[in-house]
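Hi all, posting the design record for the shared folder.

TITLE: backbone redesign
STEP: 1 of 1
STRUCTURE INPUT:
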């Protein structure tokens, strides 16, 4: 079992930055692909970014490319999402997820463990 806890959400003005953190506990963190998802009110959950087991490969949803950066520190059992140039449309609950896969996956049904979510609100 893996437990995931997100932190770092909050209220920020458009153009600002936030850094989300995901702390993992339980089984060896380094064997999982990690992903960040988000869900805005009235919308389906969507992938934001994912990073491979080794950290050498990553994926970004089109709308966040060039603004968000996903990273991980296996020694600290943590994953991060640096969000810059935030826009009001980035407002959502952001979830950290872990998949028992070596390669990146963007499908939410392939993720085995989920955090409780952290709210990100971007004001215009």
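Okay, here is what came back for every position:
SEQUENCE:
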């Amino acid at each position: 079992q893996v437990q995931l806890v997100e932190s770092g959400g909050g209220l920020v003005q458009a153009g600002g930055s936030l850094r989300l953190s995901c702390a993992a506990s339980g089984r060896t963190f380094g064997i999982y692909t990690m992903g960040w998802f988000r869900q805005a009110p009235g919308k389906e959950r969507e992938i934001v970014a994912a990073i491979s087991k080794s950290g050498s490969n990553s994926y970004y949803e089109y709308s966040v490319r060039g603004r968000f950066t996903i990273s991980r520190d296996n020694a600290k059992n943590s994953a991060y999402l640096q969000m810059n140039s935030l826009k009001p449309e980035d407002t959502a609950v952001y979830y950290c997820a872990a998949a028992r896969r070596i390669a990146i996956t963007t499908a939410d049904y392939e993720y085995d463990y989920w955090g409780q979510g952290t709210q990100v609100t971007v004001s215009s």
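COMMENT: The chain is about 0% helix and 50% strand.
Let me know if anyone wants the other runs.
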